[in-house]
Amino acid sequence: MSWGVSTSFPRAILHIDGDAFFASCEVAKNPALRGKPVITGKERGIVSACTYEAKARGVKRGMTLVEVRRVCPDAIILPSDYETYSLFSLRMYNIVRRYTPAVEEYSIDECFADLTGLRRSLRMSYPDIAARIKHDLDHELGMTFSIGLSATKTLAKIGSKWKKPSGLTVIPLRTADSFLRDTPVQNVWGIGPNTTAYLNKFGIRTAQDFVRMNEAWVRAHLSKPFVETWQELRGEVAYELSLDGRETYQSISKTKTFTPPSTDPSFVLAQLSKNIENACIKARRWDLATDRVCVFLKTQEFRYYTCEVRLPRATALPHDILRAIRPHVPALFKKGTNYRATGVVLLNLSEQGAVQLDLFGAVEKAEALTNVFRSVDDMARKYGKHAVFLGSSLEAITFGAHVGERGDVTDRVKNLFRGETKRRRLGLPMLGEVR
């Protein structure tokens, strides 16, 4: 069968999506779990990911573990092992790069790849290249992937969702209309509930209905991102692959949920202090500074107590932020209230640059503190994150975020290789057995 006609693939874009990725990583590193209802998210008390065997028993993402035990009593519930998941993710990207250097690392379990022009050098059609990539991913990583191949990123995304799990769906432009006809508009990448409701008002129910609207109507009624989606569904490339990775951040956020919830102000505020430290570490790594910060505490009833403060000068030092939010703590922390999470967002980020000295030496003191934190960052690179930390974060770092059953840690943390420390480990997953 001839697949590679130019009219069907003016561009050849793959979207690769790991099936139940976090849970599948657990099965891949421990094959004794294969065929069993495996769930990750023990530390959070809710389902982060689950195998298809668990889904068949009624388990859904976001379900509480109490509900899980009711619908699936034999579920194997594991703490999330993000270190291992990131290693599998890296291996996924590297396998795809054997075939093409043009790979966009879209998320930990997804990537795009551009195969355009590779048929001759690889001596395969585009669908054959996609099938070979899928074979290598499935067999080398011990899990399945769903893949879509088409002329644009948006069409390829439709393809990867078409047949899950372990699907390979090819959408040539000459037959794309049959796929669009059976794709509800809300299932199109980038179209959310509000836009769906708006489009429904005009009788647009499917992706095909959307594509058949004329360009003048689309531009008159929709903003630029949705015009681009319309173009992509028509086979016109509006979204190029992002191959350079992230170059900077507009904001940096750090949040942490802890269990059980706490009414202890020293513990809750220590968790907030640790989040602020972590956000500042990331800002310094990217040579960024903030002059506007938002912090919040979240109660067990999911109520948020929030404050936003402006700083006298841009900074990436946790001392400056802690000093600025201290007057607002009484309004944030209500005595006797159970809190379950804290968070911070560094806003209005800009590159750290030269600063002017002032009459009272405040900037000079800040420069001295900056030098101190350069040394802290150097020690972190050598001995691991939080080798040195603020006293205000002591309780969060000493006691962690979870106690009791939810405080169970992964095998990778329990069993270190020789020479590893809690903070510095080799890039290898820990293989284990079912207990």
Care to give the gist of this entry?
This protein is α+β, with helices and mostly antiparallel strands and 435 residues long.
Written overview of the protein:
The protein is α+β, with helices and mostly antiparallel strands. The protein has helices at residues 21-29, 52-56, 65-71, 82-96, 119-122, 126-141, 153-162, 176-181, 193-200, 207-211, 215-221, 224-233, 265-285, 318-325, 329-332, 362-383, 394-399, 411-414, and strands spanning 13-18, 38-40, 49-50, 76-78, 103-107, 110-114, 145-150, 168-170, 252-262, 288-299, 304-315, 339-347, 350-351. Strands 5-6-1-7-8 form a 5-stranded mixed beta sheet. Strands 9, 10, 11, 12 and 13 form a 5-stranded antiparallel beta sheet that branches. It has a 3-stranded mixed beta sheet with strand order 3-2-4. α1 (21-29) crosses α4 and α4 (82-96) runs antiparallel to α6. Mean pLDDT is 87; it is low at 1-5 and 354-360.
Number of strands: 13
Helix-and-strand structural type:
alpha+beta
Number of helices: 18
Beta-sheet strand percentage?
A: 15-25%
The low-pLDDT segments are 1-5, 354-360
**Strand order, largest beta sheet:** 5-6-1-7-8
Roughly how many Å apart are the termini? 49 Å
Largest sheet report: 5 strands, mixed
Describe the structure using short key phrases.
18 helices; disordered N terminus; 435 residues; five-stranded antiparallel beta sheet; five-stranded mixed beta sheet; alpha+beta
Topology:
Elements lengths: L12 E6 L2 H9 L8 E3 L8 E2 L1 H5 L8 H7 L4 E3 L3 H15 L6 E5 L2 E5 L4 H4 L3 H16 L3 E6 L2 H10 L5 E3 L5 H6 L11 H8 L6 H5 L3 H7 L2 H10 L18 E11 L2 H21 L2 E12 L4 E12 L2 H8 L3 H4 L6 E9 L2 E2 L10 H22 L10 H6 L11 H4 L21
Parallel strand pairs: 2-4, 7-8
Antiparallel strand pairs: 1-6, 1-7, 2-3, 5-6, 9-12, 10-11, 10-12, 10-13
Helix pairs in contact: 1-4, 4-6
